[in-house]
Amino acid sequence: MTPPTSLFDSQLHQDSDDISRLRLVPDLDPSDRRHLRLVLDSPVEPLAPVSTQSGYARWGKRAIDILIAVPMLLLVLPILIIGALVVLLTLGRPIIYRQRRVGRGGHPFEIIKLRTMKPEATVDLSGDEAVLDVTDRTTPATRILRRLSLDEFSQLWNVIRGEMSLVGPRPEVWTKAVRHGLVAHQRNQVRPGMTGAWQISPARNGEIRDGVEHDLRYIESVTLANDVRILSKTPAAIIRSETD
User: Fold this and answer.
1) Could you give the CA distance from residue 165 to residue 116 in angstroms, rounded to a whole number?
2) Cα–chain-centroid distance for residue 30?
3) For the chain, what are the domain ranges?
4) Quick check: 97 and 119 in contact, CB under 8 A?
């Protein structure tokens, strides 16, 4: 069987059953395939055109990401080192937490964060609810890291690598995206962001799938002014989310 070459146009033909056409996302792990929604004889609609063809969207946004992310990573490196020591002393190894998320074009990538959860408190991503409450899964020290979003500064490395942007849709967990149809989705036409329209909205403490409209409105207007506006509102949104 010839491997799929396109995210939205690939097809698999099945000899048995009455299913004649299945559309799958490439690069799935075997464990992910059982979660994937199979669309029977229903073509995946092409993504609606968005304003990502401007000079800023095509190359300016990426250039600004690099110009800001590189010096910012160097600036926060002492904070990351202190945070890593906190994790090591309170939770032990591993210090870095990697998780498969959905990136631009629906391609998976590993997001990088400082680990803030106890190793025995694993979240079951096959369901929508955590096994334990956040306070049970963290220590007082790592709760501070989470409250100030210090555990997410390491994502600047994802930005430098080109997997993320400073501003964009929040990258959904891969298994959840597969289950809720957010892999081949319009929101993935741009790189996911460390912050974004959903992240500064009142919906930021809910599920990503419930705030998709914020992302769709963002990709309709990918401009420098809009990115600056979102970045400027992010600190207040972080503080607000902890006091609501």
Assistant:
1) 23
2) 21
3) 1-42, 54-243
4) no
